[in-house]
Design brief:
heterodimer; A: alpha+beta; D-amino Acid Aminotransferase, Chain A, domain 1; 2 domains; 6-stranded antiparallel sheet; 11 helices; globular; B: 4-stranded antiparallel sheet; 13 strands; about 50% helix; elongated
Chain lengths: ~325, ~500
C-alpha cells in the first residue's frame, strides 16, 4: 500500500527510474559504438583536447607492466597528481597524491603510501580490477585539480565536481558533488559524497542529498549547502552542451571540476549517468526530458539559453512544471 | 508504434505457441501435467494347456480381449513353440488361432497383454443397432418377465438404473417371478442370463460378458458380467451386486455366447489367467503408449532420449527458468548481485548440497577465501596469478571441509566439491575489491543479495512440479521467453528505487 503510493507519487513527480532510463534514453540515444569514447578516459581527453575543451593535463600513461619503469621518472617530475584507471567506473581505483617526502607519497586523505604500494595499485589497474568488464586497462597520471576556494567551506578534503545531465545537447539538470569524511574525499554519491542541486538558470546551489536523504548543511563543516553561486555558470553549461557534438551521445552525464588556476575542466563523461541527481534537485527528469525531445536541434549557445529559461527556478518551482 | 505492435505480436505468439504445444502434448499425447501421478501397468497372461493327440493337426482357438474404454493396449504377444498364429475377428470379439501340423505331449500356449490405464477418453466405438428382437419364451416365463418389467419400470430412469433394478429384482429371494427366471441358486451366470432375458424383452440390447478384474492375481478367473447398451456405449454390471463396473478396473475378455477356448486335435484343454501389476509413472506410460500408437511424436521430445541424457536435460532446461527469476529480481526488485548470472550457477550447485548446507558451505568458502585474499594483498601479486592462488585455496578449503564433515559424519559436506570453483574464486576477488572500494557494509549487502537470489533460483529450479512441467513440456520455455521479453520492456520503478527515492515523496 505504502509502496504503491510511493510509486504513484514518484510518477507524478516525473522521477526517472533505472529501467526507464535504460530503455527510453540510454538505449535510444546512445549508440553502442560510441561508448568507448566515454568509457575510456584517455579517449575522452583526446577528444576534448581536439575540440578545445579544457581538461586536466595528462602527465603519462602506463599501459603495461613494462611501462612501470617510467613511474620513477614521472614521480620525479610531478610531486602531486591523480592516478586513474582509464576504464574505471564510479570513482573506483582512483588515487590522488598531494605530495611526496623521502620516497613516500601522501594521499589526499592524509595517509602515506610507498612507491611499492603505488606500483601494486597500478598493476591492479592494468589487470583490469577496476575496469567495467574486467578487461585489461591503462593507468593514467594527470594533473591534480587544485581546490577552488569556491567550495572550501562545503567540502571535505577532495575536490567537488559539477555533474550536468545533457540530453541531445540540452542541459537537463545539474548538481555539485561534495566530498565528505564518509566518502573519504571522493565525489561519488554512492561512496557517501553529498549531492547538491543547482538551479540551471542562476548556477546557485539548492539543498543537498546525502546517503539518499535530504540535507541542508554539510555534515562535516556544518556550512549551509544552499544559495552558493557558481561563478561563470554559463561556461559550465556551454561546455556540457558541446559534449553532445563531440561525442554524438544523446544522453550524457558531464562531470566538470573547478580548478583554482585553470577554471572549469572537463573531468569525464558518463554514458549511464546515475539518477540520484533527482534527489539532489528534488525534481524529476522525465518531464524535462520530454520537453527537450520536442525541441529542434540548435547550436550549443541557444540550447544553453533554452535550458536556463525552461528549467530555471527553485526546486519547488521545478516540481510543479 | 509499429515496434510496439511487433513486440506485442511476438510476445503473444510466444505465449500462444508455448501453451498450444503444451496443450497438444497434454491432450493428445496424454503427457501428464503433474509429476506424481503414477499409474498402473498390468500384464495379463492367459495360459492354455492341452494334450496333443498324436498324428492330428492341432488348431487352438482362443478368444482374446479387445481393449477398450480407459484401458490402453500397450502390446500383446503370442508365445508358443512352433505354432503359427493368426488373429481374426468374429462379431464383436477377436480370436487368436494357433495352428501346427503335428505335436506331441502336453502343449502350452501363452497369450500376453500389457495394459495401461489411460488418462484420456478414447473415441467412442461405432454405434451398434439398438433394436432387439424380443426373445421367444414359454408363456409362464413371458408372464414372469412382464411382471418384473412392470415393477422395474416404476423404479428406474435410464438404462443404467433399469439394469441395476432388474438385477436387484432378480436377486430378491421371495419373488416368484424372479425365482422362475433365475431357475435355481442365484449364481452370477444364472442372474446374468435371466437379466439378459428381461432387458431384451424391454428392447434393450444386452448380453453376457466375461471379464477379468484388474487385480494382482496369479490365479485369476473370468467373471460373468452383464452388459447392456445404453445407446452410446456398453455398460457393465456385476450380476450379484448390481454394481456398475468402471471400465478402468476390468478387462472385458469377450462378450456373447462363444466358448473362450476350442481345441481341435487336443485333449483336456485348460486355461488359466494371471495378472501382474506394477506402478509406473504416467510419463513412462505415455511414452510406451506413444511407441505403440506408432505416432512416434514422443520420440522427438526429450522423453525419447536415453535416460542419462534426459537427466542432463532435466537440469539444463531449468536454467532459463532460474535465469528468468534473476531477470525479475533485477528488473522489478533491483537486488544487487555479484555478476548477472553468478547466482544461477551457485543456485545450480545447491541442487547437490541442498539449500541450508549450500548456503553455509558457500559462506564458509567465501569467508576462508577472503581471509586468504586479504593476506595476499600484502604480497602485491598480479591479478591472474592471484586469482590462481585463490582458486587453489578454494580447492584446498573444499577438500578440508569435505574431510572434516566426512569425519564428523555429515555427508552433505562432501558435496561442497560441486561448487563451481572458478565462480567462487571470482566472487572472492570481486567481493574483496568491493569491500575495499565501497566498504564492508556494501560488500555484505551485495553478498546477501547474491545468496538470496541463488537460494530463490535453486528453489525454483528444483521444484519437482516445475522440473516436470518444463522437462515434459519444453514449449513452456517459450512462455518463459515471453516473460523475459516483457521484463525487458518494463519501464516502471524497481522496488529498490521506491526506497531510494522515498525522500522525494516526503518533502
Amino acid at each position: 500500500m505504502g509502496l504503491l503510493h510511493t510509486a504513484l507519487e514518484l510518477r507524478k513527480k516525473g522521477i526517472l527510474g533505472i529501467n526507464r532510463r535504460n530503455r527510453d534514453f540510454i538505449l535510444r540515444y546512445n549508440k553502442r559504438h560510441l561508448y568507448p569514447l566515454v568509457d575510456d578516459k584517455l579517449e575522452t581527453k583526446r577528444l576534448a583536447v581536439e575540440h578545445g575543451i579544457p581538461v586536466p593535463p595528462l602527465y603519462g600513461v602506463i599501459s603495461t607492466e613494462h611501462d612501470l619503469r617510467k613511474l620513477p621518472d614521472l614521480l620525479s617530475h610531478h610531486s602531486d597528481f591523480a592516478l586513474k584507471p582509464a576504464h574505471g567506473a564510479g570513482g573506483d581505483g582512483i588515487i590522488v597524491i598531494t605530495g611526496q617526502r623521502g620516497g613516500r607519497l601522501r594521499k589526499s586523505n592524509g595517509l602515506w603510501m610507498t612507491v611499492d604500494d603505488l606500483d601494486y595499485h597500478i598493476s591492479n589497474i592494468l589487470s583490469g580490477v577496476f575496469s567495467l568488464a574486467g578487461q585489461r586497462d591503462n593507468a593514467m597520471l594527470e594533473y591534480r585539480v587544485r581546490f577552488s576556494p569556491l567550495f572550501e567551506k562545503i567540502s571535505f578534503q577532495g575536490v567537488p565536481d559539477v555533474r550536468i545531465i545533457v540530453l541531445l545537447g540540452y542541459s537537463v539538470m545539474a548538481m555539485v558533488r561534495l566530498p565528505t569524511r564518509q566518502s573519504e574525499g571522493r565525489a561519488n554519491l554512492h561512496q557517501g559524497a553529498i549531492g547538491a542541486g543547482i538551479d540551471l538558470a542562476t548556477g546557485r546551489t539548492l539543498g543537498g542529498v546525502w546517503l539518499n536523504e535530504r540535507v541542508h548543511e554539510h555534515p562535516d563543516t556544518e556550512e549551509s549547502l544552499e544559495g552558493l553561486e557558481i561563478p561563470g555558470w554559463e561556461d559550465f553549461l556551454l561546455l556540457a552542451a558541446r559534449c553532445y557534438e563531440i561525442t554524438g551521445l544523446g544522453y550524457l552525464g558531464v562531470d566538470i571540476v573547478v580548478d583554482r588556476d585553470l577554471g572549469p575542466l572537463l573531468l569525464e563523461l558518463n554514458a549511464r549517468p546515475g539518477l540520484n541527481i533527482q534527489i539532489a534537485n528534488d525534481a524529476g527528469l522525465v518531464g524535462r526530458c520530454r520537453r527537450i525531445e520536442n525541441e529542434p536541434p540548435r547550436p550549443p549557445a541557444e540550447r544553453v539559453a533554452f535550458s536556463r529559461e525552461a528549467f530555471g527556478g527553485t526546486a519547488d518551482d521545478q516540481g510543479r512544471h | 508504434m509499429t515496434r510496439k505492435l511487433h513486440f506485442s505480436i511476438l510476445v503473444t505468439a510466444l505465449i500462444l505457441g508455448g501453451l498450444l504445444l503444451t496443450l497438444y502434448q497434454h491432450r493428445w499425447l496424454g503427457l501428464p501435467l503433474v509429476p506424481t501421478t503414477s499409474q498402473a501397468l498390468w500384464t495379463v497372461e492367459a495360459q492354455v494347456t492341452f494334450d496333443a493327440q498324436a498324428g492330428r493337426p492341432i488348431l487352438a482357438r482362443l478368444l482374446v480381449p479387445k481393449v477398450q474404454g480407459e484401458l490402453i493396449d500397450l502390446g500383446e504377444s503370442f508365445v508358443s513353440r512352433g505354432y503359427g498364429v493368426t488373429v481374426e475377428s468374429i462379431g464383436a470379439d477377436r480370436r487368436s488361432v494357433w495352428s501346427i501340423r503335428r505335436a506331441t505331449g502336453r502343449q502350452t500356449l501363452f497369450y500376453r497383454l500389457i495394459l495401461g490405464v489411460g488418462a484420456h477418453t478414447p473415441e467412442p466405438s461405432a454405434k451398434e443397432p439398438t433394436s432387439v428382437t424380443p426373445p421367444e419364451m414359454p408363456p409362464a416365463e413371458a408372464l414372469a418377465v412382464q411382471t418384473l418389467l412392470d415393477s422395474i419400470r416404476r423404479q428406474s430412469a435410464n438404462i443404467a438404473t433399469f439394469t441395476g433394478e432388474a438385477l436387484r429384482n432378480l436377486r430378491a429371494p421371495d419373488d416368484q417371478s424372479a425365482r422362475l427366471l433365475v431357475g435355481g441358486e442365484p449364481t452370477p451366470a444364472r442372474l446374468a442370463e435371466a437379466a439378459v432375458l428381461v432387458l431384451r424383452s424391454a428392447n434393450i440390447p444386452a448380453r453376457i460378458a466375461r471379464a477379468l478384474p484388474l487385480r494382482e492375481n496369479a490365479h485369476a478367473s473370468l467373471e460373468v458380467l452383464l452388459s447392456a447398451y445404453d445407446g452410446d456405449e456398453w455398460l457393465y454390471f456385476e450380476p450379484t451386486t448390481g454394481k456398475r463396473i468402471a471400465s478402468r478396473d476390468t478387462l472385458i475378455w469377450w462378450q456373447g455366447a462363444n466358448p473362450i477356448l476350442e481345441v481341435e486335435g487336443g485333449r483336456r484343454p485348460e486355461i488359466s489367467f494371471s495378472i501382474a501389476g506394477r506402478e509406473v509413472t504416467a510419463l513412462l506410460l505415455a511414452r510406451e503408449a506413444g511407441a505403440v500408437d506408432g505416432s512416434g511424436w514422443i520420440n522427438f521430445s526429450l522423453l525419447g532420449l536415453p535416460l542419462q541424457t534426459q537427466q542432463l536435460y532435466r537440469i539444463l532446461i531449468m536454467i532459463p527458468v532460474g535465469v528468468c527469476v534473476i531477470v525479475f529480481l533485477r528488473s522489478f526488485i533491483g537486488i544487487e548481485t555479484f555478476g548477472t548470472f553468478m547466482p544461477a550457477l551457485i543456485g545450480l550447485s545447491f541442487r547437490e548440497t541442498e539449500l541450508l548446507n549450500g548456503i553455509v558451505l558457500f559462506s564458509l568458502l567465501i569467508a576462508v577465501g577472503m581471509g586468504i585474499r586479504m593476506y595476499l594483498e600484502h604480497l602485491k601479486l598480479l591479478l591472474v596469478p592471484r586469482l590462481a592462488v585463490i582458486l587453489t585455496v578454494v580447492v584446498l578449503a573444499m577438500g578440508g571441509i569435505t574431510i572434516l564433515s566426512h569425519r564428523l559424519g555429515f555427508d552433505r559436506g562432501v558435496s561442497v566439491a560441486l561448487f563451481p570453483m572458478v565462480i567462487v574464486a571470482m566472487t572472492i576477488e570481486r567481493m574483496t575489491i568491493l569491500w575495499e572500494e565501497r566498504g564492508a557494509w556494501w560488500a555484505l549487502v551485495v553478498a546477501a543479495g547474491s545468496l538470496f537470489t541463488a537460494a530463490l533460483v535453486y528453489l525454483v529450479m528444483s521444484a519437482p512440479l516445475l522440473t516436470h512441467l518444463f522437462f515434459t513440456f519444453p514449449g513452456l520455455l517459450l512462455v518463459v521467453m515471453a516473460l523475459m521479453l516483457l521484463a525487458g520492456s518494463y519501464r516502471g520503478y524497481r522496488l529498490s528505487e521506491l526506497l531510494r527515492f522515498r525522500a522525494l515523496v516526503r518533502s
